[in-house]
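2024-03-11 09:14:02 INFO worker-7 job=invfold-0412 stage=load source=structure_tokens
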């Protein structure tokens, strides 16, 4: 009779014992084991193996030695050394690389996901990190707030500043610009915090017959506001001097001719760039295809040396050109900008022949890589959109009977591509597209592609892909308020400097 093995057991000794089965093939009596060697019944109450071990030791010494050897090996493999046990309970030192790496990850999570500082003190969060790494000791919210977040803010800010052309250009001339810019900020703050000063400024504006505008304060993360602040102060210089000329307390804020000269030099260098930045920050029109023409215009004309430029203006322009060249030098970025520019019917002729041929080859390759699945999906979506336009009410007028000219119109408008491969069709489309007359710069390229989609069915898909890219991040930032997501009713006690850091990190911290 075959014996039934003990279920759910890993002890090696049970390999030599089993149970008498019942009619259903299950153990008949779990308190009485049967030796598989001599078929003797051995009491094993509550799965106790003492009697089983004694039976093997007395009657089957060879099998007992094997069981003993297996038990010893299993016990040894699961036992850790003293060094390993010590490592498991020893916490990482705060100056160790491992602790700094883990803490930096936690800090980035809090900043990027806009979590409150006390997240690090919540039991569930601490338990989760403890399960990940028992040697890591999570710092408290005070350390995160006063040390980790400020350190990360400075690190990310330094990286961002390296990529800002205007900020770097002005910073390179800090010795000459620091006083003038500081004077502007003090002027704005002085007039902003005193209603008497604002009243006197308005009166002086009327007397001097200049626009009644308020002064503007710059924002450190938006370089364009620096130019607006300087431009507004220069505009209001006559009124400012009228207000401060007899003010003993704030008379030192009256700009000298040297200050005005520095501000005019800075403004002369920044104003052309500021105008284009405002235009490229739009979201209701195509902007990505304008980046390369704008860069060429800035470097070749607006930021090129001029005989009327002061030394300060010339130095700022040179520095901005150098930073722009470095910023837009990566090959993938250049490739994207060239594709977008070539697909814009306003700018497609603004290339040298070699660059056009190279970009055309890249577009052909991309067209060939477009899957038929994506093509079919777009056809389905177009048909669905067309179906949505059909009136469904019973009062809709009956469809007009089609004429022969209507049926032949589509064939007449679209050249025959029968017998052409996909590559030949794409090449023919690109050749015909390059021969089209260039649009006026004020025209809408999206409207042009809508009207000519049937003539260029393959290229239009690429135009749809690239024309939707925004040239700047301004459009994305307009869609929601990061500060509103951070300063919630639960976190209303955050200090202004902490809010500034968290907003900056949330918008600029790279995602991995």
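2024-03-11 09:14:09 INFO worker-7 stage=emit residues=512
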């Amino acid at each position: 009779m075959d014996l039934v093995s003990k279920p759910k057991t890993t002890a090696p000794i049970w390999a030599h014992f089993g149970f008498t089965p019942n009619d259903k093939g299950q153990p008949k009596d779990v308190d009485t084991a049967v030796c598989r060697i001599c078929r003797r019944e051995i009491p094993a109450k509550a799965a106790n193996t003492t009697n089983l071990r004694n039976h093997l030791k007395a009657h089957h010494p060879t099998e007992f030695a094997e069981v003993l050897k297996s038990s010893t090996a299993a016990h040894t493999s699961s036992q850790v050394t003293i060094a390993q046990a010590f490592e498991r309970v020893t916490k990482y030192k705060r100056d160790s690389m491992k602790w700094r790496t883990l803490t930096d990850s936690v800090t980035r999570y809090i900043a990027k996901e806009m979590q409150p500082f006390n997240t690090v003190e919540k039991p569930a969060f601490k338990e989760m990190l403890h399960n990940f790494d028992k040697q890591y000791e999570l710092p408290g919210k005070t350390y995160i707030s006063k040390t980790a977040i400020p350190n990360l803010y400075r690190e990310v800010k330094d990286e961002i500043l390296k990529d800002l052309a205007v900020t770097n250009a002005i910073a390179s001339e800090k010795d000459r610009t620091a006083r003038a810019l500081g004077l502007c900020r003090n002027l704005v703050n002085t007039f902003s915090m005193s209603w008497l000063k604002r009243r006197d400024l308005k009166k002086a504006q009327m007397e001097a017959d200049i626009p009644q505008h308020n002064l503007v304060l710059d924002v450190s993360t938006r370089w364009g506001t620096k130019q607006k602040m300087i431009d507004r102060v220069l505009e209001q210089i006559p009124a400012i001097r009228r207000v401060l000329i007899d003010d003993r307390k704030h008379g030192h804020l009256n700009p000298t001719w040297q200050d005005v000269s520095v501000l005019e030099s800075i403004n002369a260098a920044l104003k052309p760039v500021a105008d284009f930045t405002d235009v490229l920050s739009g979201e209701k029109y195509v902007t990505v295809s304008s980046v390369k023409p704008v860069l060429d215009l800035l470097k070749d004309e607006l930021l090129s040396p001029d005989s009327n430029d002061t030394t300060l203006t010339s130095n700022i322009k040179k520095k901005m050109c150098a930073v722009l060249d470095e910023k837009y030098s990566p090959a993938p970025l250049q490739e994207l900008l060239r594709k977008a520019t070539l697909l814009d019917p306003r700018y497609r002729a603004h290339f040298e022949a070699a660059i056009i041929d190279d970009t055309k080859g890249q577009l052909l390759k991309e067209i060939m890589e477009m899957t038929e699945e994506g093509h079919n999906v777009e056809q389905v979506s177009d048909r669905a959109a067309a179906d949505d336009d059909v009136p469904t009410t019973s009062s809709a007028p009956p469809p007009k009977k089609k004429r022969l000219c209507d049926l032949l119109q589509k064939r007449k408008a679209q050249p025959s591509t029968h017998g052409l491969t996909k590559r030949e069709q794409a090449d023919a489309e690109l050749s015909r597209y390059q021969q089209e007359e260039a649009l006026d710069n004020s025209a809408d390229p999206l409207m042009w592609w809508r009207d000519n989609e049937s003539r260029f069915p393959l290229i239009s898909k690429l135009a749809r892909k690239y024309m939707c890219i925004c040239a700047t991040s301004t459009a994305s930032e307009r869609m929601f308020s990061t500060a509103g997501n951070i300063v919630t009713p639960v976190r209303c006690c955050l200090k202004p400097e902490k809010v500034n850091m968290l907003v900056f990190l949330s918008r600029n911290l790279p995602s991995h």
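2024-03-11 09:14:09 INFO worker-7 stage=report msg="Strands lie at 17-18, 32-35, 41-43."
2024-03-11 09:14:10 INFO worker-7 job finished
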